[in-house]
Amino acid sequence: MTRKPLLSVENLSKTFFLHEQNKVIPSSSQVNLTVYAGKLTALIGPTGAGKSSVLKSIYRTYLPSSGRLLYETAAGVTLDLALALEHQILELRREEIGFVTQFLHTLPRQKTLDVVAMPLYRQGVDKQEGRARAAELLAELNIPERLWEVPPATFSGGEKQRVNLARGLIASPRLLLLDEPTASLDAKTTDRVVNLIQRKKEQGTGMLAIFHHADLVKRMADEVVELMVPVVNV
Amino acid sequence: MDKILEVKGLSQVYGPGCDLCFASTGPDFETNICPHCGSIVALHDLSFDLYKGEILGIMGESGSGKSTAVKCLYFDQMPVGGSATFFDDSGQKPLFKLNPAQRRSLRNHRFGMVYQNPNLGLNFDISAGGNIAERLLMSQVMNYSEIRERARELLARTEVLTERMDELPKNFSGGMQQRVQIAKALATRPPLLLLDEVTTGLDLSVQAKILDLILEIQSELNTAMIVVTHDLGVIRLLAGRTLVMKYGRVIERGLTDQILEDPQHAYTQQLVASAL
Lengths: 234, 276
Hints:
The complex is a heterodimer. Chain A is α/β, with parallel strands linked by helices. Helix content of chain A is about 35%, strand content about 25%. In chain B, the strands form two sheets. A six-stranded mixed sheet of chain B has the order 6-7-8-3-9-10, with helices on both faces. In chain B, strand 7, helix 7 and strand 8 form a beta-alpha-beta unit. Chains A and B meet through strand 1 and helix 2 of A and helix 7, helix 9 and helix 10 of B.
C-alpha cells in the first residue's frame, strides 16, 4: 500500500545571518524526511545538528532558507509551508499542526486547565467541555488535581512540560511536532507520556519528534532520520 | 477568513513637506526629518490587511510612526496619502473619503480606541459610569436604567470595582483608568479595537491583568485588534502577526514568533537581542 505522506521535507536547509557580526551560521543542512498519518518519525543526531531548527522551520517559527516542506492539508491540498501565507500558517496552527516545545509560554493569570484547553477554545469548543477534556488529560499525565486551578508559572520543570504536552495533544492535531517531550520526566511518568503519544498515533496523528533517549526512539519511532552537524566553510 | 481592514500606502508628514521628503528619509538615511524642508516623515507607504478577530502587532521604538498609524485610522488626524478600507457589515467604507458625519459614526460605533494616556480616552470630569454612558448615548441607547446596567456590566467585565462607578476616573490608579478606558472602548462592541501602548508605564502585575483582559475580549467577542507597542513581551503574548517599524517605514513583517526568534532585518535583530 502506498500512501501520500502527511509531510515531506525535501532538501531543507536553514542558515542564520547575523548582521551585527556579518556572519552566516548554518543550522540544518539538506534535510529530507517524511511523516505519515498515524506514524512517528524520530529525528536523531548530535547537538548542533539542527534538529530543533527542522521542527521550527516546519512550524515557521524559523523561515526556511531553502528546500520544500510539502504538507497535505485536511482539505486535501498540498501546501509548501515555506511559502504559505502567514494567515494560512496561523490557520494550520489553530486547526491542524501542533508543536510541543521545551518551554511553556502562558498568560500570567491563566489557570492550568485553561492553558491546556486553549487550543480547543480557539476551535470554538465551549469552556465547560474544554475544561473537562483538559482535566482528563492532566489526570492521565499525573498532574495533581490541586494544581489544575493554579497558573503553571510556579510548577516544576517536569510539571510544566506535561502541561505543555497536554496542550499539544488535546486538540488531536493532524501533525504534531515534539521537541524532547520527556526530557525532564522520571521513568514512571515517561511511561504515561509514551502511552498517551502512542494512543494519539493510533488515532491518526502523524508525529515528528526529537527524543532525549535512544531507547525512546526504539520504543516509539516508525522511521528514524539522522542529521549531521553542518560543515562550516570558513 | 474575512478581511476587516485594508490599508494601502498610508503616509503622514508633519510640516510643510516637499517633493524630496520621502526620498531622503527612512532607515537608509537613519532619520525621519527631511533635510530639505525640515518636515517629519512620520509614516511612509504603510500597507497591511487585518482579518476579523485577528490581533496584529505594530512594534517599533519612539518616533517609528506606529502611533501615527492608529491615530490616522481613528480619524485623530488625516494622512497626507494612502487609503484605508473598512469592511463593515453594511459594505466597504473608504475611511479617508468619508464625510465628517460618517467618520463620527464609525468612530463612535464601530471602532474602539485605547490610548496610552487615559486622559485622551476618558473625560476626567465625569464619573467612570458616565464615561461609558456617553458612548452608549452616541449609540442611541437612551434608557437610563439600561445605560446604567450596561455600564455596570462593562466595568465588572474589565474588573473595575462597580461600587466606584460613580467616582471620577481622575481619582483612580493608572491601571484602573486603563481598564475604564477599555470598558468605554468596548461599550458598543466594536469589531475593530485600536490599542496604543496600553500597558506602558503600568506596573507588571497590572500589565498582566490588562493583557489577560485583552485576550479574553478577543476570544469572547472576536474583535480584530491593532496593538501598538515597543514592548516585545506584549507583542509575544498578544499578536499573531507583527509589523516592525523604523523611521516611519515597515522594515520587517511576519508571524510574531518568527519575528522574535528568527528576525531577518539588522534592526529587528538588534532590537530582539537587546530585549532578551
